[in-house]
Design brief:
Pfam families: DUF364, DUF4213. By secondary structure, the protein is of the alpha/beta class. The chain has 2 domains: about 90 residues, Enolase-like, domain 1; about 150 residues, Rossmann fold, CATH 3.40.50.11590. The chain is built from 9 helices and 11 strands. Helix 1 crosses helix 3. The longest helix is centred in the N-terminal third of the chain and has 16 residues. It is globular.
């Protein structure tokens, strides 16, 4: 599974073609990068130093110099790297063009969970990452939520080693790419149906080689509004117009 990152960076290099990076914004909740007319997102790390040595130097750099930051163990650098990877890959992804929008009355960041809920009765379900409001949406349905910084009802992330192999369905946040936990999470989920999800998702068909069954990421609807939400510290507001969730089954 360590080859996952080499594979992803190869896709990013082919998609970006050494184009320069435009603006980069390291917001409170989301990190956003611009390559050509493409925008890419990554979940921002919870703790970032007050001063970053590279601030003011990223715009204009070749994308192939910043994509490898995804491999960094510095959380801020990894977020920037993932955002640049996504900006290159997702701007012209045929995979994303094929994905179908997820519509509904629930808030946008919960529509993936609402879509799959009818299929989950009697199943052991795991969710990687805490999604605000999910405990209300699935109030009548037992599930495991694994979180690095657990809130009420969550399990610590170390518990995945014991429980994920028992799961029938696993919903994995794509932000696990930046913190380097995704390869192990996919290994532990090898017997489950896996949904890889979130704005941090690179839209590539070949995720199925790593055991992913569904991709659920975002399509930019309003680039200007997305920039503003990220720069002003927005979280779930990103899903209220600037982007829409879309879904693609990889094994259909």
């Amino acid at each position: 599974m360590n080859g996952l990152y080499d594979w992803l960076l190869e896709h990013a290099a082919a998609a970006a073609r050494d184009e320069p990076v435009g603006r980069v914004c390291l917001g409170l909740n989301w990190t956003l990068a611009e390559v050509g007319d493409g925008l890419g997102f990554a979940f921002s790390p919870r703790q970032v130093p007050r001063t970053l040595s590279w601030a003011g130097t990223l715009g204009g750099q070749a994308s192939d110099r910043l994509c490898p930051w995804l491999l960094s163990w510095d959380a801020a650098e990894a977020a920037v790297g993932l955002a640049v990877v996504n900006a290159g890959i997702n701007r012209s992804s045929p995979c994303l063009r094929q994905a179908q929008p997820l519509l509904g009355e629930v808030p946008g960041h919960l529509r993936v969970f609402a879509h799959f809920r009818p299929q989950l009765d009697g199943q052991k379900v795991a969710v990687i990452g805490h999604y605000p409001g999910l405990e209300t949406l699935w109030h009548d349905f037992p599930y495991w939520c694994f979180e690095r910084q657990p809130q009420d009802g969550d399990l610590p992330d170390a518990a995945v080693e014991y429980l994920l192999p028992e799961a029938d369905w696993v919903f994995i946040t794509a932000s696990s790419l930046a913190n380097k936990t995704l390869p192990r999470l996919l290994e532990l989920s090898s017997r489950a149906r896996v949904v890889l999800m979130g704005p941090s998702l690179p839209w590539i068909y070949e995720w199925r080689r790593f055991g992913v069954n569904y991709l659920a990421g975002v399509r930019v609807q309003d680039a200007r509004a997305a920039h503003q939400v990220v720069a002003e510290g927005g979280g779930t507001r990103l899903f209220a117009g600037p982007v829409e969730y879309a879904l693609l089954a990889l094994d259909s």
